[in-house]
Amino acid sequence: MGESEESRWFEALRQLLDRSHLWTPEDVPSSLDAVVAPLGLRARIWLVDHEQVALRALVGPGAEAPDPVSVDGSLPGRAFARVESTPALGGRDGVRRWWVPMVDATDRLGVIEFVVTEDADAEDRELVRHCELLAGLVGHLIASVTTRGDHIDRVRRTRPMSTASELLGSILPPLTSSTDRVAVSAILQPCYEVGGDGFDYALTGTTAQLVILDAVGRGLRAGLACAVALAAIRTTRNAGGRLDEQARAADAALEEQFPDTRFATAVLAELDLHTGRLRFVNAGHPPPLLLRGGKLVRELKAPGRMPLGIADPSAEVAEHFLEPDDRLLLYTDGVTEARTAAGDRFGVGRLVDLAEQHERAGLPAPETLRRLAHAVVDHQSGPPADDATLMLVQWSTPAALNTVPKAGQATREDDARS
């Protein structure tokens, strides 16, 4: 790619960034298409819906959206699932296109469909690399513009969201975040009706602080209890408070706000990313599962304390040392207690078997959790009786890199030949 071509791509990136300062969410599709047209491309953004079942086109006001595309069993779905650019060169419609993953940092938002016109070479490795660069910028910009209006969030919804889900969705961190040492991913189901489940994390260069929480009950009161507990934990953590102090802060906040005794089970943990030392408090919650080499090593049991909201001054902080590349799987009881109409529980054994299967397949952490969560939903007959939340922590540089968009197929093949 010559200097003039590089200049054209730089100009496209500059124009997109300049336009974004005054964007409304509705402006995104037309702006992207306008800046790529001189490059011999057309572009369409596809956002994953909140249940992570299908990709839905982001179109401007008055434009007709094409039908959603399933994540499972489709080329765009593969690009999303594997965080990997996927070509469709000379497909059934004869159109040459690339499906490029779109993330905000490592949080998967969807894909961008780049259609190649006669003026561009669909098999040019530099073209793919530049499309990936552009998709990375668009992912960051979409994340920033989403809060300016409702348009992007409406595209991702397939039905109305409960008040509790709306509340929790506004305070939870992204579903996936990674550093060069660790990948942390979480998922909640049912995403439109979640009540008391929640999660939190805070990553630095040396530590990963983790919380998974299940407030008793369902609906808005459970959601409020979850929000109060998470806020108390965050406040204490930000002030430098230890794990036991964070738990006691949640106790006090729940006791103050809910005189009728509203409590929550939880695991609060801190992982040292240099040494692998894991310190954790278990407040009446299912124990975390330690996976190593694609196999369950053990449940990490700890001296239990009372659930959050019930003061327990005798609570102890447990400790365990992880090995490099270990996986830590945390979950709420809505996962293992999910039942068929005949009463068959999903259970820990099935959870572990599926987690091991997906790890052997080399799936990124968020894709493993997406498939696990859908397996829980599919296991049940009718609406779920309880929220189901999963968190996967991978203390592994390769696992972290697996959540970063990979180079396109043309790039990888060319590098292999070099």
What can you see in these coordinates?
The protein is α+β, with helices and mostly antiparallel strands and 418 residues long. 37% of the residues lie in helices and 25% in strands. The protein has 13 helices and 17 strands. The strands form three sheets. A six-stranded antiparallel sheet has the order 3-2-1-6-5-4, with helices on both faces. Strands 7-8-17-16-13-14 form a six-stranded antiparallel sheet. The protein has a five-stranded antiparallel sheet with strand order 9-10-11-12-15. A hairpin with a 4-residue loop joins β7 and β8. α1 (3-20) packs antiparallel against α2 (28-36). The longest helix has 21 residues, at 125-145. The radius of gyration is 22 Å and the shape is globular. The model is unreliable at 408-418 (pLDDT under 50).
List the helices and strands and how they pair.
Blueprint (H helix, E strand, L loop, with lengths): L2 H18 L7 H9 L4 E8 L5 E5 L10 E2 L4 H8 L3 E3 L7 E9 L2 E10 L8 H21 L5 H6 L6 H9 L4 E3 L4 E7 L7 E7 L3 E9 L3 H20 L4 H15 L6 E9 L4 E7 L5 E4 L2 E5 L18 E4 L5 E5 L1 H4 L10 H14 L4 H15 L8 E7 L2 H5 L7 H9 L1
Helix pairs in contact: 1-2, 1-4, 4-13, 6-7, 7-8, 10-11
What is the structure about, briefly put?
The chain is of the alpha+beta class and 418 residues long.
Annotation keywords:
six-stranded antiparallel sheet, 13 helices, 37% helix, alpha+beta, 418 residues
Mean pLDDT: 90
State which percent range the strand residues make up. Answer: 15-25%
Number of strands: 17
Radius of gyration: 22 Å
* Number of helical segments with 4 or more residues: 13
The main β sheet shows up as: 6 strands, antiparallel
Q: Which segments are poorly predicted (pLDDT under 50) over 5 or more consecutive residues? A: 408-418
Roughly how many Å apart are the termini?
18 Å
What's the helix-strand series?
HHEEEHEEEHHHEEEEHHEEEEEEHHHEHH
Strand order of the largest sheet: 3-2-1-6-5-4
